[in-house]
Specification:
The protein is an all-alpha fold and 403 residues long. Helix content is 73%, strand content 0%.
Length: 403
C-alpha cells in the first residue's frame, strides 16, 4: 500500500526534466511559429490561415479535451482520474492563451470564410445563413465561448487548489456540482465553435453529428497526451510508487472506448449522408474520396481506428508503460491528420479534387505544439503531482494493490 502522507511535490530531478522539455518546446514552437507567420507572405493569406487553423485548432482541442476529462472525473470519480488530474488541470490552463489564438481567424475571416467576404454577400446560400453566419455575431460567440471555457477553467483550478489547502469536502462538492452543467455547456459551445470555424469553411454543407465528432477527437487527443505524460512522471519518485498497472489498464480502456466512439460517429455521419444522397451533402465526401484525398481517408481508417483498436484490445499492451505511451504518442500524431482532413479539402474544386499539402501544414501544428507544450510543462510542476485534498485519494492510490 502507498500513503497520502507523501507530499507529492515535484522532485528536483523531475523538475529539471520538465524544465528542459519546456525550453525545448518553447524554442521549437517559436522557430516554427515564425516560419508559419512567414507563410502569410510566401504562400498567401488564405493558405496561411488554412494551415494556422489546422495547427491552432488541434492544440486548442487538446486543452478542451483536458477540460472535458477533468469535469468527467469530478462527476464520476474513479482512480483513473485521480492519477491524471494534475496533467489535466495543467492542460486546461493553456486555454487562456489558446482562446486568444482565434483572433487572427476572426480579424482575417473574409480571407478564409466565404460567408464573411462581402464579395459573396449576395450569394443565395450566404443570405440564407446570414442570421447565424454574420461578423458581429461571430465575434459575440467567440466572447461567449471565452466566458464559458475560461470561467470553467478558472473555477475548477481555483477550487482544486483550495481543496488541497483546506482538505474540505466543501470544495470537492463544488467541483462536482459545477462539472455536471459544465459538461453540458462544453458540448453546446464546442458544437457551435466547430460550426463557426470548421463546418462553415464549406457554407453549403451541414452535419448534425459534426460537433460530437470534434468532441470525440478532442477527448482522444487529451487522453493520449496525459497517458504519455503520466508514464513520464512515473519514471521519478514518488509517482513511480503511486502508479500501478491497473491505473494504466483503466486509462487504456478509456482510450479504446474513445477510439471506438470516434469511428462510430465518423461512420454514422458517412452512412447518413450516403443514404440521403443529396448534392449539398455529398460534396463534402466527393472532395475527400477523390483526387488522392481518398488515401488520407484510408490512413485515418487504418491508423486512427483499426490499428489503435487492435493494439488497445490487449491487456498486456495497456498495462505496459512503454507500449501504452508509444500508442498514445502515435494517436496524437494521427489526430493531426484528422484535423487536416477536416480543413484542407474544403478548398479544392469539388468537380476536380486534387490532393495538395503545403509546408505550412507541417510547420503550424509543430509551432503550436511547441507553444502548447511549453505552457503545459511550465505549469505542471507548480502544484503537487497528486490532489492531496481529494477525499478518495487513498482509495485511488491503493487501486490495483489489493492483492
Amino acid at each position: 500500500m502507498t500513503t497520502t502522507e507523501q507530499t507529492y511535490t515535484t522532485p528536483p530531478r523531475l523538475a529539471d526534466t520538465l524544465k528542459k522539455y519546456q525550453q525545448i518546446a518553447a524554442f521549437v514552437g517559436l522557430v516554427f511559429l515564425v516560419l508559419t507567420a512567414s507563410g502569410y507572405f510566401f504562400a498567401g493569406p488564405q493558405q496561411f490561415l488554412r494551415s494556422y487553423l489546422v495547427g491552432m485548432f488541434f492544440w486548442f482541442g487538446m486543452g478542451m479535451g483536458c477540460l472535458l476529462w477533468l469535469m468527467i472525473h469530478f462527476v464520476s470519480g474513479g482512480a483513473w482520474g485521480m492519477m491524471i488530474r494534475r496533467p489535466l488541470e495543467a492542460g486546461t490552463r493553456t486555454l487562456y492563451v489558446m482562446w486568444l489564438c482565434f483572433l487572427p481567424l476572426i480579424v482575417l475571416a473574409p480571407k478564409l470564410y466565404v460567408w464573411a467576404d462581402t464579395a459573396h454577400a449576395n450569394d443565395k446560400i450566404v443570405q440564407l445563413k446570414h442570421l447565424y453566419l454574420n461578423y458581429p455575431f461571430f465575434i459575440a460567440r467567440w466572447l461567449i465561448y471565452g466566458v464559458v471555457w475560461l470561467g470553467l477553467t478558472f473555477l475548477l483550478n481555483k477550487w482544486s487548489r483550495l481543496e488541497d489547502e483546506t482538505k474540505s469536502w466543501k470544495y470537492s462538492s463544488a467541483l462536482e456540482k459545477l462539472s455536471g452543467p459544465g459538461i453540458v455547456a462544453y458540448f453546446f459551445t464546442m458544437t457551435f465553435c466547430g460550426v463557426d470555424y470548421l463546418m462553415s469553411l464549406d457554407v453549403t454543407w451541414a452535419s448534425t453529428i459534426y460537433g460530437f465528432l470534434l468532441v470525440a477527437g478532442q477527448g482522444l487527443s487529451a487522453m493520449s497526451l496525459v497517458v504519455a505524460v503520466l508514464i513520464l512522471l512515473g519514471k521519478y519518485a514518488p509517482m513511480d510508487l503511486a502508479i500501478t498497472s491497473k491505473h494504466l489498464h483503466d486509462l487504456g480502456k478509456l482510450m479504446l472506448a474513445v477510439v471506438m466512439m470516434w469511428a462510430y460517429l465518423s461512420f454514422s455521419q458517412y452512412l447518413i449522408i450516403y443514404s440521403g444522397n443529396l448534392p449539398q451533402e455529398i460534396s463534402w465526401y466527393v472532395r475527400r474520396l477523390n483526387g488522392g484525398w481518398q488515401w488520407v481517408g484510408l490512413v485515418l481508417l487504418l491508423f486512427h481506428f483499426a490499428l489503435p483498436f487492435a493494439l488497445l484490445l490487449s491487456q498486456t499492451l495497456k498495462k505496459n508503460p512503454k507500449t501504452i505511451a508509444s500508442i498514445a504518442i502515435f494517436i496524437i500524431c494521427i489526430r493531426v491528420v484528422d484535423v487536416f482532413w477536416l480543413v484542407e479539402p474544403n478548398f479544392v474544386d469539388v468537380n476536380h479534387p486534387v490532393f495538395t499539402i503545403s509546408w505550412l501544414d507541417l510547420t503550424a501544428p509543430i509551432g503550436f505544439g511547441g507553444l502548447w507544450l511549453a505552457m503545459f510543462f511550465r505549469t505542471l510542476p507548480t502544484r503537487p503531482l497528486m490532489p492531496l485534498g481529494a477525499p478518495d485519494l487513498q482509495k485511488a492510490l491503493n487501486h490495483g494493490r489489493e492483492h
